[in-house]
Write a structure and sequence with these properties.
Layout: H1 3-30, E1 41-52, E2 55-67, E3 72-76, H2 83-90, E4 98-103, E5 106-107, H3 113-123, E6 124-127, H4 139-149, H5 154-167, H6 183-195, E7 201-205, H7 213-230, E8 233-238, H8 241-244, E9 250-255, E10 258-259
Parallel strand pairs: 3-8, 3-9, 6-7, 7-8
Antiparallel strand pairs: 1-2, 1-4, 4-5, 9-10
Length: about 260
């Protein structure tokens, strides 16, 4: 083949390849592929049964649920419906009898105790009805305690604890002990403690149970602000759905260990 003919053939091949490439990629751009995010929390057929002598009590029965990252979910129900059991499973304080439970990349049912402790340290902030503050410690020291247990350097943990107290509006009260604080202020300290390690998941077990209605409403508004402004996933267990109705993305009801009708 003559040199001129060879060059002409090569030029034609390049043009054809370029035309094919442009056609394929222009077609791809017209039909974008959307990918759905995986749920942040997934429960698949979760059961939790306790042995009480010769009797077996089913606290949860084949519960399945998904929660997306950044959702605010309220779980309501009567005492004994399984709410606190579910929260304890999500915090790796207990393990399911059956089923699979996943939070982020963690499969909780397979963790040994040290891994459970690490999961709680890295992933979960917990708020309780009983504030669980140490009376001999100041608000600042109570908030910094999780960082002490994690081995964080003293200067860093002090900075983080002050920042966490500032976020809940208690910077000016950081040197006060629990007995010098109101019930609402003590719960705010507890919330600051739950946030100090920057966990993606916040679990609140009856956080307004020991508060009057006005203070309880302020605490729920604070949790909603944390959810909206910091992008955290918040799960609140409560006897009072009316407290969270204006804020929760979903309200789920547990009855005898199973979910019944939910709103939103």
């Amino acid at each position: 083949m003559a040199p001129v003919e060879a060059h002409g053939l090569l030029f034609s091949l390049v043009l054809s390849s370029a035309a094919w490439f442009m056609h394929e990629h222009s077609t791809m751009s017209i039909h974008p592929v959307s990918q759905k995010m995986e749920p942040f929390i997934r429960l698949a057929n979760i059961s939790r049964t306790y042995a009480m002598g010769a009797t077996r009590v089913a606290a949860l029965r084949q519960v399945s649920l998904t929660i997306d990252e950044g959702e605010f979910v309220a779980i309501v129900g009567r005492s004994g419906s399984g709410k606190s059991t579910l929260l304890h499973l999500l915090a790796a304080l207990d393990q399911p009898t059956e089923g699979q439970l996943q939070v982020g990349t963690w499969t909780l049912g397979t963790l040994h105790p040290r891994q459970q402790a690490r999961f709680r340290r890295e992933m979960v902030g917990m708020i309780f009805q009983q504030f669980n503050l140490i009376p001999s410690m100041t608000a600042l020291e109570n908030v910094a305690l999780p960082l002490v247990l994690a081995g964080t350097a003293s200067d860093i943990r002090k900075t983080q604890a002050i920042d966490s107290l500032t976020r809940v509006g208690l910077r000016e009260r950081m040197d006060h002990r629990p007995t010098e604080l109101s019930g609402g202020e003590q719960q705010r300290v507890a919330i600051a403690r739950a946030l100090v390690s920057d966990p993606p998941l916040l679990l609140a077990d009856e956080p307004t149970g020991n508060l009057d209605s006005t203070t309880g409403s302020q605490i729920i508004r604070l949790l909603d602000s944390i959810h909206r402004n910091q992008g955290r996933t918040v799960i609140v267990v409560t006897h009072h759905p009316e407290e969270v109705a204006a804020f929760a993305d979903r309200i789920l009801e547990l009855h005898d260990g199973t979910f019944v009708d939910s709103s939103r």
